[in-house]
Structure formats: C-alpha cells, structure tokens
Specification:
Layout lengths: L1 E4 L2 E9 L11 H17 L5 E10 L6 E8 L6 H6 L16 H11 L3 E6 L5 E8 L4
Parallel strand pairs: 2-3
Antiparallel strand pairs: 1-2, 3-4, 4-6, 5-6
Helix pairs in contact: 1-3
C-alpha cells in the first residue's frame, strides 16, 4: 500500500507471522486506536517518507502467551532522553499543542489489559514500538 501525504511517499506493510488467527484478550476498539496512534507517530517520524511495518506474532505458550504487535518505522529515531519521557502525558517533540497524548494512551490501554509497551530506537535509525497483550486462549 502506498499513500501520499504532502510531498512524502509512505509505504505500509503488514505481515502475519503465523498461519492461524492471532487473538489478544482486549477491547477491539482500544486496540484499533492504539495501533492507529503508533502508525501516526511512525508517519510523523518520517518527514521525507519511508516505510512503516506492522507485524503481529505470538510469544510464549499457555497461560503466559502474549500477542506482540510491532510497529516499526524508518524515521529519525529517538534519543535516550526522548524515550525516557515518551510515555509522559503531553510530552511531545512536535510543535507545542500538537501531541503528547498518543503514547500515554497506548501505555494506559496496554496496562488496562495486563499488557505492556516498549520502545526500541536509536537516533537516525528508526523506531520500533512493541505492544504486548495477553493472548486469548483458544
């Protein structure tokens, strides 16, 4: 999929790691909003365009099984200081008044459902955000 935003070209790719259904124990609308927030952040981190990948996979087995959703971009990346504050409400690296609630919302959603969220990033190397939620036992 390719979409244009301003003069940038953005690509998005999704890849299912397993052949079967991957189901997380969570609110469907909340998961949709969390993923959208992560995709919007990834898009904003790529002022010259680039690719965003969204991957879902199972981690662990039985009652401790988790669904891991990874949203990765080829953007500008984050410093250690930015990563340390990324989940603080109203902290933003964008223009004042233009953000600061997306990542805290994602963290709140994850914790509400006994999950977690983690950021892996390096300045100039892009960012991967991993959202972990309990898997629904089939």
């Amino acid at each position: 999929m390719r979409a244009a935003r301003d003069d940038r070209q953005l690509g998005a790719a999704g890849d299912r790691q397993l052949g079967g259904e991957i189901t997380a124990k969570c609110d469907r609308l909340g998961l949709q909003n969390a993923i959208l927030n992560l995709v919007f952040n990834a898009r904003d981190a790529m002022p010259d365009g680039g690719s965003i990948s969204i991957d879902a996979a199972m981690a662990g087995h039985g009652r401790t099984a988790l669904v891991e959703v990874r949203v990765a971009d080829q953007g500008i990346g984050m410093t250690q200081e930015t990563m340390a504050r990324a989940f603080d409400p109203f902290f933003t690296t964008k223009c004042p008044g233009l953000g600061g609630i997306g990542l805290p919302m994602v963290k709140h959603f994850a914790e509400q459902h006994d999950g977690s969220v983690e950021i892996n990033s390096a300045l100039g190397s892009g960012t991967t955000v991993i959202l972990r939620l309990p898997a629904a036992l089939q």
